[in-house]
Amino acid sequence: MRIIGFSIEWPKLEQDEFTTFRFQRKDRDWSIGEAVQVRIKPRSKGGGIRKGVAVIMHKENKGIADSVTIKNTEAVADGFPGGVPEMWRWFIKSHSPEQLAQPLYKLTLKWANTILANKHR
Q1: Structural domain boundaries of the chain?
Q2: Averaged over 92-99, what is the pLDDT?
Q3: Tell me, which fold does domain 2-119 have in CATH?
């Protein structure tokens, strides 16, 4: 199972369903229905903090850096109160120019335990 990492423990991770923006991967891109292990600071000593398993429910192409179609409401929901400008400052700080040239996706994830609980109702 692949890891989807977060550098900080965003409040959105407390919701049953949450979104995150990710650039296209070179090895194998994210896919709908894929179960991923959510971790905080996965590259830190000890592998970071394991939050649980989530499933990618939706994947929306948002374009490439010079023509991205992120709405302010999406940026705020993703954890950036300053909207799109604040989100882009974060991306520029945390990603290489090569990564910023890749397609950007909005992923909607749902915690696996929430999915299982709904199936047993």
Answers
A1: 2-119
A2: 88
A3: 2.30.130
